[in-house]
Amino acid sequence: xxxxxxxxxxxxxxxxxxxxxxxxxxxxxxxxxxxxxxxxxxxxxxxxxxxxxxxxxxxxxxxxxxxxxxxxxxxxxxxxxxxxxxxxxxxxxxxxxxxxxxxxxxxxxxxxxxxxxxxxxx
Length: 122
What we know:
By secondary structure, the chain is of the alpha+beta class. It has helices spanning 11-27, 34-43, 64-70, 81-87, 106-121; strands at 29-32, 48-52, 75-78, 96-101. The chain is globular, with a radius of gyration of 13 Å.
């Protein structure tokens, strides 16, 4: 497990996270890439951050969980940067995405955020 991953994400939750990213892509706003995501978290405009677990080098995302915790931005992990790229509408892999507007995914965001909070408590 990479150094920045704080908990194991169950497959069902990862699937919901991909679904949330796709919903936000279609009906809201999603920003891609670690630099962009870092800026959004620092500004306080990110509603939810998703990070891929298979990023190399790990240092690309090493700061992200701490920054998200400091700014009270919920975050989650998914196993594949390739799948994360596809979910947000790219043909290339992406290390992280920030949802700035969830669109029609508000209920799903609340469900995912609660599940992630429960995982963080363990």
